[in-house]
């Protein structure tokens, strides 16, 4: 092999790994894979594993402890048991649209060199359901978040209109038919004209949950 071939082989072994696509539903838990089998036998007291994006530190596993970056407290972690088996996958809980990014996994050796192990692109999707109801039945629309949202309704063959906004279980404008309980918006006693599509949108107008209702 030529010197150039050796250089290219070494270079690609470090940076040419395939970008892994990972998708998850809003609010769910996802795992972003990272193969750390090359460092499986490294003593735990010397293991430092870093997950980050281009502008955010997500989590650092340092000698048995997870240290999360801003915005990832109680949401990002690496499993100590999996790490012992050479699995450096990032576990990310309660994913939101703002988590969509490219995540990079690195191993930090005893000389503070960051060894690139792989990266994954996270895509977060909204939920979608189809429901058939009879007149008089209650309708439950999952909000799936405690953040401020808006509920939009589009009747069959009609145009979308904003029904209400929800924040901290408070519905605006107030309505005797609308009630929030356990992050679920409940509409009492549906009528034939209530059939259509209900969409829960976040503050950026991105659909978190879409429910198609037939009455």
TrEMBL record:
<keyword id="KW-0325">Glycoprotein</keyword>
<feature type="domain" description="Ig-like">
    <location>
        <begin position="27"/>
        <end position="123"/>
    </location>
</feature>
<dbReference type="InterPro" id="IPR036179">
    <property type="entry name" value="Ig-like_dom_sf"/>
</dbReference>
<keyword id="KW-0472">Membrane</keyword>
<keyword id="KW-0732">Signal</keyword>
<keyword id="KW-1015">Disulfide bond</keyword>
<dbReference type="GO" id="GO:0009897">
    <property type="term" value="C:external side of plasma membrane"/>
</dbReference>
<keyword id="KW-0812">Transmembrane</keyword>
<dbReference type="InterPro" id="IPR007110">
    <property type="entry name" value="Ig-like_dom"/>
</dbReference>
<dbReference type="InterPro" id="IPR003599">
    <property type="entry name" value="Ig_sub"/>
</dbReference>
<protein>
    <recommendedName>
        <fullName>Ig-like domain-containing protein</fullName>
    </recommendedName>
</protein>
<dbReference type="InterPro" id="IPR051713">
    <property type="entry name" value="T-cell_Activation_Regulation"/>
</dbReference>
<keyword id="KW-0675">Receptor</keyword>
<dbReference type="GO" id="GO:0001817">
    <property type="term" value="P:regulation of cytokine production"/>
</dbReference>
<dbReference type="Pfam" id="PF07686">
    <property type="entry name" value="V-set"/>
</dbReference>
<dbReference type="GO" id="GO:0050852">
    <property type="term" value="P:T cell receptor signaling pathway"/>
</dbReference>
<dbReference type="GO" id="GO:0005102">
    <property type="term" value="F:signaling receptor binding"/>
</dbReference>
<keyword id="KW-1133">Transmembrane helix</keyword>
<feature type="signal peptide">
    <location>
        <begin position="1"/>
        <end position="18"/>
    </location>
</feature>
<dbReference type="InterPro" id="IPR013783">
    <property type="entry name" value="Ig-like_fold"/>
</dbReference>
<keyword id="KW-0393">Immunoglobulin domain</keyword>
<keyword id="KW-1003">Cell membrane</keyword>
<dbReference type="InterPro" id="IPR013106">
    <property type="entry name" value="Ig_V-set"/>
</dbReference>
């Amino acid at each position: 092999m030529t010197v150039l071939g050796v250089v290219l082989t070494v270079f690609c072994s470090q940076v040419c790994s395939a970008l892994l696509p990972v998708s998850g539903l809003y609010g769910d838990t996802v795992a972003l894979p990272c193969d750390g089998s090359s460092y499986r036998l490294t003593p735990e007291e010397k293991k430092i594993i870093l997950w980050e994006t281009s502008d955010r530190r997500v989590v650092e596993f340092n000698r048995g402890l997870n240290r999360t970056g801003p915005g990832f407290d109680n949401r990002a972690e690496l499993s100590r048991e999996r790490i012992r088996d050479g699995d450096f996958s990032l576990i990310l809980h309660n994913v939101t649209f703002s988590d969509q990014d490219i995540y990079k996994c690195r191993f930090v050796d005893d000389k503070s060199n960051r060894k690139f192990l792989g990266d994954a692109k996270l895509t977060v999707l909204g939920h979608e359901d189809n429901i058939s109801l009879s007149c008089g039945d209650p309708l439950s629309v999952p909000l799936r978040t405690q953040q401020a949202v808006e509920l939009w309704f589009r009747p069959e063959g009609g145009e979308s209109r904003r029904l209400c906004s929800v924040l901290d279980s408070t519905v605006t404008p107030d309505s005797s038919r609308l009630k929030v309980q356990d992050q679920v918006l409940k509409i009492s006693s549906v009528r034939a004209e209530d059939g259509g599509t209900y969409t829960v949108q976040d503050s950026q107008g991105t659909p978190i949950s879409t429910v198609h209702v037939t009455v």
